[in-house]
Amino acid sequence: MDPNNATYPVKLYVYDISKGMARQLSPLMLGIQLDGIWHTAIVVHGEEFFYGGGGITNCQPGETSLGEPNSIIDLGTTEVTVDIFMEYLTSLGESTYRGNQYHLFEWNCNTFSNEVAQFLTGSKIPAHITDLPAEVLSTPFGQAIRPLLDSISIAPQGGNTFNGQYGQR
Amino acid sequence: MAESSGTDPTVDSNVVENAAKDRTMIVVTVKTPKDKEEIAILEDSSVAQFKEEISKRFNAKLDQLVLIFAGKILKDGDTLNQHGIKDGLTVHLVIKTAPKATSGSTSQNSASSSGTPQANSSSSASSPVPNASTPPGTGPAIQPPNLLSGFGDLSSLSGMGMGSANFMELQQQMQRQLMSNPEMLSQIMDNPLVQNMMSNPDLMRQMIVTNPQMQQLMERNPEISHMLNNPELMRQTMELARNPAMMQEMMRNQDRALSNLESIPGGYNALRRMYTDIQEPMFSAAREQFGNNPFSALGGNLDSGVQPSRTENREPLPNPWGPPGTAPSESRGTGSSTTTSSNGGTAPSVSSLPNPLGINASGLGNGVFSSPGMQSLMQQISENPQLMQNMLSAPYMRSMMQSLAQNPDLASQMQNPEALSVMTNPRAMQALMQIQQGLQTLQTEAPGLMPSLAPGGIPGIPSTTGGSVAPEGPPPPTQGSNPSADVSPSQQQQQLMQQMLQMFAGGVTTTQAVTPEVRFQQQLDQLSAMGFLNREANLQALIATGGDINAAIERLLGSQPS
């Protein structure tokens, strides 16, 4: 192996945005058991990266307004260096992960985390996170509140954004 | 023929190569952040050859390409097999935009400078993130001075109790500064940092929401929080705030819309309801807490279909009718108040008519005019002549113009600014009507009182008949008869007043359309349902009480033998 191959650990921070409410209320409201409404972020190179209504954002790990993560999943390691990763994120932020493309169900933080995880490590994030929107939409309640959900975007505060597209939407 | 594949640098082999050979072609998806392509290549190719293909397809130089698979960076000397790249798998590609050394530093700089707009997030009570000012890394130690020095020359603020790390207090101090120095606002707005900040709707929303005053506002009126949660509206609002020209445009549009609304029958009532139910408490709350802070009133928008956002000049008009029956005081709310209804020539006569009651209308007017709300309204009107035009173009205005033309005296009265201000206030007009009706009652019941009113000196109208004001027959019914030229001036005056009031109340262009009977139809029905079968008496009672059912009932009970 090349001695130049430094590897960096990649972690997935998983937050429950509902702070436990989903676990309790989902059987009543949706008819299925959801353990949480998951928001995820990728932590690599000492920083946390996530995607929200404000575009791709980064901050110190665990420093968003969501506080500490519910769980941390180890995704493996990557050889991708900081420079390459930043380039990659900048490209993403300008193209497919702009802030105004955010959609709560279809193009959200978990979509982003999934993509970055595959880029960095080749593996995807756990399926129960990415399958969540489909599960919710499969319930009658989910269908009913779909128009409302279309207008929500989740953007935990506390970081710096990548796309730099303020006011240009 | 290209028999050898592995060492052939010019790989045209993807098309020509013979799949039947033991060297097989595989199709690998190459994915960049922006797009992806499928590239067919021999499965035992080296990474270098793969990159050749890629550089052709993506139009990039070889040394700009960085290939990543399974978290590993593919080096030129490796082979695809070595990394396990097989048919149908995806390889990630990053095309470096600049040579490696500078790209790293530029991306870091952009990351930190794009951090400045976010730095102002007030989600926590503690001061904002470092790097608040435009050049990164200037003031590491204390946050508030950095933040404010980034605003340009607000250095005067830095002396104002910067010991408090509480961002809320900072905001309040800033507001105080803003109010005392209007120039400062324009300075602030011009600062690119602020503009950057304001373009971020989430940030603005956060700032607004975490302000405790705003939270109080939101509690009182949930519509505000609803509005704040609507990103489109926020964005629009912020565009407005940044662009005063656009703001004026919007004001103009919505005033036009409003004046159109009033011409719809019943539309005036809807507007009045809107005003009293929603805007008054909101703006009184906003005013007492925010002063002239522009952002506050921006947050006070309703998303009713009729009424897009309004700006800070819509101060609540103070209620001049504390006790009923006092003279309507002048409250000038033209285009910017909810009613641009207008009526003419009643103020001067009003100021004389209630004199027997001992109330000085002009005194009231002074107090009202001097309130800061009034002044800002008037300033707005003077800045935006379009408002007056809108007002004047409403249909009922035309009918009034016609009656103006018929009676030149009325015209002179209309020019009286007090008259104008009374015209624009709906409650003024209603009170006038009540007074009018009261006067008629007086005329019938206490004719001796009337002579004292005639010489009261209605300005602009020569008072010819000194005392014979009381008409022979019953006073003209409030159904609004046409002015007859042979009655005394004050009689004519009253008739004109009634006409005006009728026009105003009914919102129609003729002088005979709306009768009290029609107006009080609902109340009449209610009364008859309760058992008051004397329709005439009901009507009189309703007229006397101005539509107040309970008071009318008392009247009826008082006058009827049980």
From TrEMBL, chain A:
<dbReference type="InterPro" id="IPR042266">
    <property type="entry name" value="PPPDE_sf"/>
</dbReference>
<dbReference type="GO" id="GO:0070646">
    <property type="term" value="P:protein modification by small protein removal"/>
</dbReference>
<keyword id="KW-0378">Hydrolase</keyword>
<feature type="domain" description="PPPDE">
    <location>
        <begin position="8"/>
        <end position="150"/>
    </location>
</feature>
<dbReference type="GO" id="GO:0008233">
    <property type="term" value="F:peptidase activity"/>
</dbReference>
<keyword id="KW-0645">Protease</keyword>
<comment type="similarity">
    <text>Belongs to the DeSI family.</text>
</comment>
<dbReference type="GO" id="GO:0006508">
    <property type="term" value="P:proteolysis"/>
</dbReference>
<dbReference type="Pfam" id="PF05903">
    <property type="entry name" value="Peptidase_C97"/>
</dbReference>
<dbReference type="GO" id="GO:0008474">
    <property type="term" value="F:palmitoyl-(protein) hydrolase activity"/>
</dbReference>
<dbReference type="InterPro" id="IPR008580">
    <property type="entry name" value="PPPDE_dom"/>
</dbReference>
<protein>
    <recommendedName>
        <fullName>palmitoyl-protein hydrolase</fullName>
        <ecNumber>3.1.2.22</ecNumber>
    </recommendedName>
</protein>
Automatic annotation (TrEMBL), chain B:
<keyword id="KW-0072">Autophagy</keyword>
<keyword id="KW-0597">Phosphoprotein</keyword>
<dbReference type="InterPro" id="IPR009060">
    <property type="entry name" value="UBA-like_sf"/>
</dbReference>
<keyword id="KW-0256">Endoplasmic reticulum</keyword>
<dbReference type="GO" id="GO:0005829">
    <property type="term" value="C:cytosol"/>
</dbReference>
<keyword id="KW-1017">Isopeptide bond</keyword>
<feature type="domain" description="Ubiquitin-like">
    <location>
        <begin position="26"/>
        <end position="96"/>
    </location>
</feature>
<dbReference type="InterPro" id="IPR015940">
    <property type="entry name" value="UBA"/>
</dbReference>
<feature type="region of interest" description="Disordered">
    <location>
        <begin position="447"/>
        <end position="495"/>
    </location>
</feature>
<feature type="region of interest" description="Disordered">
    <location>
        <begin position="294"/>
        <end position="358"/>
    </location>
</feature>
<keyword id="KW-0832">Ubl conjugation</keyword>
<dbReference type="GO" id="GO:0006281">
    <property type="term" value="P:DNA repair"/>
</dbReference>
<dbReference type="InterPro" id="IPR006636">
    <property type="entry name" value="STI1_HS-bd"/>
</dbReference>
<keyword id="KW-0968">Cytoplasmic vesicle</keyword>
<dbReference type="InterPro" id="IPR029071">
    <property type="entry name" value="Ubiquitin-like_domsf"/>
</dbReference>
<comment type="subunit">
    <text>Homooligomer. Binds signal sequences of proteins that are targeted to the endoplasmic reticulum. Interacts (via UBA domain) with GJA1 (not ubiquitinated) and with ubiquitin; both compete for the same binding site. Interacts (via UBA domain) with ubiquitin and with polyubiquitin chains. Interacts (via ubiquitin-like domain) with PSMD2 and PSMD4, regulatory subunits of the 26S proteasome. Interacts with ATXN1/SCA1; interaction with ATXN1 inhibits polyubiquitination of UBQLN4 and interferes with PSMD4 binding. Interacts with HERPUD1.</text>
</comment>
<dbReference type="Pfam" id="PF00240">
    <property type="entry name" value="ubiquitin"/>
</dbReference>
<dbReference type="GO" id="GO:0005783">
    <property type="term" value="C:endoplasmic reticulum"/>
</dbReference>
<keyword id="KW-0963">Cytoplasm</keyword>
<keyword id="KW-0234">DNA repair</keyword>
<feature type="domain" description="UBA">
    <location>
        <begin position="519"/>
        <end position="559"/>
    </location>
</feature>
<dbReference type="InterPro" id="IPR015496">
    <property type="entry name" value="Ubiquilin"/>
</dbReference>
